[in-house]
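Support case: user asked for a sample of complex input and structure output to validate their parser. Sending the pair below.
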Amino acid sequence: MLNTPHDCVDCPIRHRAVCARCETDELEALEQIKYYRTFEAGQTVIWSGDPMDFVGSVVSGIATLTQTMEDGRTQMVGLLLPSDFVGRPGRDGAAYDVVATTDLVMCCFRKKPFEQLMMETPHIAQRLLEMTLDELDAAREWMLVLGRKTAREKIASLLSIIARRDASLKLDATKDTLVFDLPLTREAMADYLGLTLETVSRQISALKKDGVIQLEGKRHVTIPNLSRLLEEAGDDSDGGIMA
Amino acid sequence: MLNTPHDCVDCPIRHRAVCARCETDELEALEQIKYYRTFEAGQTVIWSGDPMDFVGSVVSGIATLTQTMEDGRTQMVGLLLPSDFVGRPGRDGAAYDVVATTDLVMCCFRKKPFEQLMMETPHIAQRLLEMTLDELDAAREWMLVLGRKTAREKIASLLSIIARRDASLKLDATKDTLVFDLPLTREAMADYLGLTLETVSRQISALKKDGVIQLEGKRHVTIPNLSRLLEEAGDDSDGGIMA
DNA sequence: GGCTCTCCTTGACTCAGATCAAGCGCGAAC
DNA sequence: GTTCGCGCTTGATCTGAGTCAAGGAGAGCC
């Protein structure tokens, strides 16, 4: 069973979500208009174009943002992790499909009151701006991956993003060996990277054969040497994270 | 000679830039910290990684935002048109190369005072949030183009974006025939679309041969039938601009 | 146990777009 | 007027990733 927190004070995303900068009284105002929703892995949270009367944050689990063309080609345009924000204040309909990739808990705010609150409490708008700017940077990084990288580099890029995020959560950092589970199917990775699932599978096999990664089962990945992986991704080889 | 305006009140981008929502007194505060800079076509405004002590708006002309890999592969990640915002409050270095594609006039604000002003005047922060969200949407639209569209669809997508923007400026809308000049070289288009310049050239020739566009010289384009172009772009065929 | 379903892998073949290469047109410089 | 250089076009060939197709591994169910 998915357990849903109730109190903002001990919320796992308290210090990273839209509400990160809020003071106690501001939190209370938010608490008035919030409610939790849970979704099972595979469930669609919203369909593109549907009216959307809430915005919210991912509390736990992973969701994807995807765009689909009329003939069925799909491109993932966002990967939503805990603390990420969903929805756009000031817009009525959803612009993308949002799908729960794992079991998902969301902290939702009714849109109208949230918009109202945003006008009154600069802390929320400031934090949302900051988060949006970060997302824009991530999207631009991703445009380079989609437009200019080879299939092998794309896979290495995705793996290093997931590895880095995982390392930052677990705080077993500075170790050069990283271990994690892939949160995405081969097909979802393909949609993220603008590839087919066959190519994803082949390139993962190739990276495994070349010793860049180790695989246990289909999802459990070990990175014996992060800088090697970053090299394969075509990123700055020193692995420095820039400002 | 590039003529630089001096008074915000009759600034051509007054109602669309970061300052769009500002009241007269807020404008005056901005006016205190603003200065104009001009660049010639081809000049680099900032190099990625360089310290950046200003933010600003494009007043006239066009600039590009690009990312470059160590081996020289480049991907454009933004096309800056009049009223677009450059720079990120709260960040010290430039994250991308910014290059003037045409002669360019920018209205710059010293960064520190601008950040200060942003804290005090919600109108600026609000407008910046709105603009950033729009850019994020555009970036995501572009991810679909980069990841899933064919070369022909990519060219058609780019042409329809330029055509639509031009139509919205000139206000000769509702006409199905559009005429404009390409503001980009074939190479810049290739960098935008994740293609080579040869492929760009070939696809433009093909669209011309098929009567989707007409070309006069290398830059002057006529779109006899916009919905035909949108079909070629793989967009919703009705050409509706969604909310 | 066997059945089915989903996710994944691997092979053989094809093709869209990259690469390599030659040449055109036009404006600027001499 | 000639020459140069840049932006662009077009052709020939190559190749990385897509497509089509066959099957494997594991989980859940009867």
